[in-house]
């Protein structure tokens, strides 16, 4: 027996090709892609199915401290199970520095929550919220060298916002250490001003989350971040872009040759601000509250434009799961009623791939190659996991999803495995569904059933992102 597993009869799709081929796996890695593969202990029949690189979701939040009285709905076991059921084989959550604390201690504490719990491979970004001289001069450089090669900074939120001076200092460290800096672009002062004004007018329903942070606020912050990055000559990734305004800033930067990269998410191609109205402006609108907020149909069209034209490199879920009907969730946030207190985030790690495939490939908006690039390959390349993850070729981890391109499904909470008690896509119909997820040669999920065990997934260190180097070839 030459192989542990042979996947036979399927159509292998990568970011560059679609070919009819079998895949041979040994020791958790792909060792052959060929017309016919014989001699395996386990044969998996993939006829009629697409054989895709497992999804890599480079933007999720799991078991993250979310402030007093608020608890995230997924721990690493449920979050990775949900990811696996949705066709993913790697996720990248954020190890967040809490203000007033050292970065290293926060990372160690967070890592402990994940060890032995993950069903699929997991690798952490950092969040820098308190860029003290010790953090910037010692802790961050040491952590980058240890394999935490990307970090996020925020331009809003009381407990996370960095001012312009701090952003510049952090960007300078990213440049020096060749780490990739990810930026949450929404302007703090404008949001605070608008929020207070709306509340004074009695406009406190979840719907007003949208008007409290309109596109202009995101566009201004995107432009400011781009300017800072240009000033210091450092590459940058702008995460969770929601609409035309910010997208056009990014395209403008890219057309000027700046190394500005961008991510978008399922909520920005499928939801609108009207979803936050709920039933007659009630609290059910809180189920859709995330930041930046979903916009309008025209913004959705702009995001598709960006996806088609390559303005966006990655399509992530920004899975940030809270419960709705719970004292620690969205319905009654901290016992208060204003939208200001509703935890920002929606669950989506399990539905990201079906939504992109259905709205993108099945509806003819993007090619299979674009789908694979946006959902897997570009994430691996962007964050230093390539050529171990993100494609189907000899030498890559055997991280594979078998995909039924014809299967019709209706997304509904009872089919999902996340810790939230709802999905924002309840009743949403898709064409295309993951039928089997294999991580490092082992089946972890099949037809909605979780087969993997906590501990099957490793915590990965990463190499430097080739995108973090100015003028790098990638
Ligand atoms: N930013 C995120 O990346 N996720 C959830 C909320 C937020 O502000
Ligand atoms: Zn963010
Ligand atoms: Zn996020």
How would you sum up this structure in a few lines?
This protein has 474 residues and is α/β, with parallel strands linked by helices. Helices cover 29% and strands 20% of the residues.
Key traits:
single chain; 474 residues; TIM Barrel; seven-stranded parallel beta sheet; globular; binds dihydropyrimidine-2,4(1H,3H)-dione; binds zinc ion
Task: Please characterize this protein's 3D structure.
- There is one protein chain.
- With 474 residues, the protein is α/β, with parallel strands linked by helices.
- It has a domain of 313 residues: Alpha-Beta Barrel (TIM Barrel).
- Helix content is 29%, strand content 20%.
- It is built from 12 helices and 21 strands.
- The strands form 4 sheets. The protein has a 7-stranded mixed sheet with strand order 3-2-7-18-19-20-21, covered by helices on one side. Strands 10-12-13-14-15-16-17 form a 7-stranded parallel sheet. A 4-stranded mixed sheet has the order 5-4-1-6, with no helix packed on it.
- Strand 4 and strand 5 form a beta hairpin.
- It is globular, with a radius of gyration of 21 Å.
- The two termini are 38 Å apart.
- 57% of the residues are buried.
- The mean pLDDT is 97.
- It binds dihydropyrimidine-2,4(1H,3H)-dione and zinc ion (ZN) (2 copies).
């Amino acid at each position: 027996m030459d192989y542990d597993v042979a996947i036979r009869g399927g159509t292998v799709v990568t970011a560059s090709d679609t070919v009819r081929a079998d895949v041979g796996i040994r020791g958790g890695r792909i060792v052959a892609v060929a017309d016919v593969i014989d001699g395996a202990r386990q044969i998996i029949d993939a006829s009629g199915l697409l054989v895709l690189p497992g999804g890599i979701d480079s933007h999720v939040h799991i078991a993250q401290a979310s402030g007093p009285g608020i608890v995230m709905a997924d721990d690493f076991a449920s979050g990775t199970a949900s990811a696996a059921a949705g066709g993913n084989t790697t996720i990248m959550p954020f190890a967040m520095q809490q203000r007033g604390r050292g970065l290293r201690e926060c990372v160690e504490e967070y890592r402990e929550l994940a060890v032995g719990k993950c069903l699929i491979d997991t690798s952490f970004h950092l969040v820098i919220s308190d860029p003290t001289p010790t953090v910037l001069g010692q802790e961050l450089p040491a952590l980058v060298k240890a394999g935490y090669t990307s970090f996020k900074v925020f331009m809003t939120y009381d407990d996370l916002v960095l001012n312009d001076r701090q952003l510049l200092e952090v960007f300078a460290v990213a440049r020096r250490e060749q780490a990739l800096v990810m930026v949450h672009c929404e302007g703090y002062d404008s949001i605070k001003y608008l929020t207070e004004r709306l509340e004074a007018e009695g406009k406190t329903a979840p719907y007003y989350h949208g008007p409290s942070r309109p596109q202009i606020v995101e566009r201004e912050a995107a432009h400011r971040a781009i300017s800072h990055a240009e000033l210091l000559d450092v590459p940058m990734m702008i995460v969770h872009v929601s609409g035309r305004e910010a997208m056009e800033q990014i395209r403008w930067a890219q057309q000027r040759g700046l190394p500005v990269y961008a991510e978008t998410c399922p909520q920005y191609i499928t939801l609108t601000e009207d979803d936050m109205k709920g039933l007659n402006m009630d609290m059910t609108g809180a189920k859709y509250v995330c930041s930046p907020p979903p916009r309008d149909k025209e913004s959705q069209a702009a995001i598709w434009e960006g996806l088609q034209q390559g303005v966006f490199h990655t399509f992530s879920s920004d899975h940030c799961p809270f419960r709705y009907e719970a004292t620690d969730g969205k319905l009654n946030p901290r016992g208060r009623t204003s939208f200001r207190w509703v935890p920002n985030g929606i669950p989506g790690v399990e539905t990201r791939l079906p939504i992109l495939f259905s709205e993108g490939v099945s509806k003819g908006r993007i090619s299979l190659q674009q789908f694979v690039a946006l959902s897997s390959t570009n994430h691996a390349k962007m964050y230093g996991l390539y050529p171990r993850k993100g494609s189907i070729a000899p030498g890559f981890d055997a991280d594979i999803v078998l995909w039924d391109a014809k299967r019709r499904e209706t997304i509904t909470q009872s089919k999902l495995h996340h810790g939230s008690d709802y999905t924002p896509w309840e009743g949403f119909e898709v064409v295309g569904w993951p039928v089997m997820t294999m991580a490092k040669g082992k089946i972890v999920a099949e037809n909605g059933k979780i087969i993997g065990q906590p501990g099957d997934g490793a915590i990965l260190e990463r190499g430097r992102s080739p995108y973090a180097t100015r003028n790098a070839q990638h």
